[in-house]
Design brief:
It is a single chain. By secondary structure, the protein is α+β, with helices and mostly antiparallel strands. The chain has one domain. The protein is 30% helix and 12% strand. It starts with 10 loop residues before the first helix and ends with a helix.
Length: 497
């Protein structure tokens, strides 16, 4: 999602931009959503009665999104305790506009009669309280718990191999699996320590929250903690306050042996202290209907840092993306304005690095930045130095605040692991050798590409000779994308379940 003015930018830098560009095609691929609708969503609820369409004032031509609001699931309130008599009639767009909770100034939730973009009023928010039923409110089911014999010391990320050939065949959208919104693996403690060091070094360059985003951050925190407690019940739990008067006041992390007071700790800080993933929150601006970056924790950036784009709309964030304004800006803004809460989307981007480049950003004083760890000594690069970096991403709208949230995690794999994966070496080799030059340059630097291709060609020949790849196979995107044939049995076996 983020752009930069620094040349030589890496694929990690454009990964979220690529995600959004792909995501705007979601409306053209409704079959993907329909196919998995039954698995993704929480139990259905009674919908509000249809009311006669009312003519709404047309927005000014220069403000086309001023009266465009995302679908609301406020009708779900009627199924929740204490809301049995609530009026579930839709709120008119004109009312949402004139009575919008502000995002430029600090909102006052004690004032009744103001609304979020999804139609929840300040009264609704107060009555919902803390930790409401987010599965019902969002329309996305709760996760299943991990198997009883799941061991974090053995836990591994799913083996993402999101390679495509040709690029026109598949837009890299993946079915969102509610069990994997947050993934914990054996790298948990190392990554958490690394993130703490980065925050101490970079501070507000990688971590910030505007006052207008506090409610959205709290909503996100509650949704993530609810996920952790349900997905990893042996490792996380919630308990009442010491006096027993406030439910879900304390969060217990048995992996870190910590207890966090949720009543006194900043919501974004709670996430940072417990979750090894990055988050960026975009909020709808009440004056133009566009989405602006208002809060973020982003540690895994390569070639940029998130504070460069604080308070920027999509168009400004993408100012340096070629043809963005002329070809993509309209569709991007329109897609953001309409994204439903019950349709999260996943995607995975990739690149090859010559070191485990978790975070590297330009010097604040000079703007200088180097991607490679072998600059000036490229000839010393060994195949074993090459890492496949995958950025697994999810984009979803929060149901109450209507904030659009990105969360993403960087996953590193030694290139040599691909040697035993059917079809993968030949597919990746073809992308690196024959892919569009501008795209491949984003994926890796030239010395990494050359060394990688050399190894991949050898492994592809090995697989042909062993009969792993049948004669006549035409290189193309795998049906199992973003994984590969046989991945799941192998992945589960390595973890002991």
């Amino acid at each position: 999602m983020w752009s930069t003015q620094i040349p030589g930018i890496s694929t990690a830098h454009i990964s979220i931009a690529g995600a959004i560009i792909c995501l705007i095609l979601l409306t053209l691929q409704r079959s993907l959503t329909v196919r998995w609708k039954g698995r993704e969503r929480a139990p259905s609820v009674t919908h509000p009665p249809k009311e006669k369409e009312q003519k709404q004032p047309k927005p000014k031509p220069d403000l086309p999104y001023l009266l465009q609001f995302p679908p609301s699931r406020r009708h779900v309130l009627a199924t929740l305790p204490g809301f049995e008599k609530v009026d579930i009639q839709p709120v008119a767009p004109e009312t949402l506009k004139s009575q919008a909770l502000p995002t430029v100034t600090t909102p006052d939730f004690d004032k009744y009669g103001f609304y979020t973009p999804t139609g929840f009023s300040t009264q609704d928010i107060k009555k919902l309280g803390r930790f409401p039923d987010y599965a019902a409110l969002s329309g996305v089911r709760d996760p299943n718990p991990v198997p009883e014999n799941w061991d974090i010391a053995k836990a591994k990320f799913r083996p993402y191999r999101p390679f495509r050939w040709g690029y026109h065949q598949h837009m890299a959208l993946m079915k969102y699996d509610p069990d994997y919104w947050v993934e914990l693996t054996s790298t948990y403690h190392t990554t958490m320590s690394q993130r703490r060091s980065l925050l101490a070094q970079h501070g507000s360059r990688i971590f910030f929250c505007n006052p207008c985003a506090v409610h959205a951050c709290r909503e996100l925190m509650e949704m993530v903690l609810s996920f952790l407690v349900k997905r990893y019940p042996s490792h996380f739990s919630l308990s009442p306050s010491a006096d027993g008067l406030t439910p879900n006041a304390l969060f217990h992390n048995r992996l870190l042996s910590t207890t966090t007071n949720l009543l006194t700790t900043d919501p974004l800080q709670v996430l940072f202290d417990n979750v090894p993933e990055d988050y960026a929150l975009m909020l709808r601006n009440e004056s133009d209907g566009l989405y602006y970056l208002r809060a973020a924790i982003v540690c895994s950036s390569v070639g940029w840092y998130v504070a460069q784009h604080r308070d920027s709309p999509l168009k400004a964030i993408h100012a340096n993306v070629p043809d963005y304004e002329s070809k993509m800006a309209f569709s991007m803004d329109r897609w953001f304005s309409r994204l439903p809460t019950d349709t999260p989307v996943s995607r995975c981007s990739w690149g090859l690095e010559d070191w485990e480049a978790f975070h590297t950003s330009p010097c604040p004083q000079t703007g200088e930045w180097t991607r490679s760890a072998f600059k000036g000594r490229e000839g010393e690069l060994d195949m074993k130095d090459i890492k496949l970096r995958c950025d697994a991403q999810t984009l979803r709208r929060l149901p109450v605040s209507a904030a659009v949230v990105f969360n993403f995690k960087a996953i590193f794999t030694g290139l040599e692991e691909l040697r035993e994966e059917r079809y993968v070496p030949e597919l990746l080799g073809k992308v690196l050798k024959e892919g569009k030059r501008e795209l491949v340059e984003y994926k890796c630097e030239e010395h990494v590409r050359r060394k990688g291709v050399e190894a991949l060609e050898g492994w592809a020949r090995e697989q042909r000779e062993k009969g792993w790849v049948e004669e006549g196979w035409e290189v193309g995107t795998l049906e199992e994308s973003p994984f590969f044939p046989g991945w799941e049995g192998r992945w589960r076996g390595e973890q002991g379940f």
